[in-house]
């Protein structure tokens, strides 16, 4: 999961403060399952995916209050999860390989992508080492682009190695006292199995 630009709006002693910065995240596991229909070289599918990251810290760059803006560089340790559950409609195109790999090649390169919706969730456990509870989610537009290569084990079964860039519109989280806007972007590397019926 890539670092995320964050805007945090909150109120202190009746004064609204808008702080902007960047959250640093550790990557975690991803999982994906899909079912679809093959039109020869073109595959159309519906996909359910789960991408996860863990917060390390947020670096605040500036804060605005009462019309005044100050520039800061303050790193604040965070612990918690930043996850995306994607509901995607995808299209993948399988390329013929005999022309440049060999007539008996079992390798199948493919490219494609998809659009859909993603449920983005923030679940914070602590800020500056102080335990906290901030558990919010938002559903936003999502997209992905990628490609990979498959290896035909049999006529109907392939093992795939693929890469995807997954991104979303900014998600908005609001617990009634603290509103957070954040983006979710990720480089996804998958090992998979493609089975035709």
Order of helices and strands: EEEEEEEEEE
Taking Cα atoms only, what radius of gyration do you get, to the nearest Å?
21 Å
Question: How many distinct beta strands?
Answer: 10
The helix tally amounts to: 0
Estimate the strand proportion. Answer: over 45%
CA distance, first residue to last residue? 34 Å
Mean pLDDT, all residues: 92
* Structural category: mainly beta
Shape: elongated
Strands side by side in the biggest sheet:
8-9-1-2-3-4-5-6-7-10
Which stretches are poorly predicted, pLDDT < 50 over at least 5 residues? none
Structural summary, described in words:
This protein is mainly beta and 197 residues long. It contains no helices and ten strands. It has strands spanning 4-12, 15-39, 42-65, 68-94, 107-127, 130-152, 157-168, 171-174, 178-182, 185-195. It has a ten-stranded antiparallel beta sheet, with no helix packed on it. A hairpin with a 2-residue loop joins strand 1 (4-12) and strand 2. It is elongated.
Write the layout of secondary structure elements.
Blueprint: E1 4-12, E2 15-39, E3 42-65, E4 68-94, E5 107-127, E6 130-152, E7 157-168, E8 171-174, E9 178-182, E10 185-195
Antiparallel strand pairs: 1-2, 1-9, 2-3, 3-4, 4-5, 5-6, 6-7, 7-10, 8-9
How would you summarize what this structure contains?
This protein is mostly beta strands and 197 residues long.
Brief descriptors of the model:
single chain, 197 residues, mainly beta, ten-stranded antiparallel sheet, 0% helix
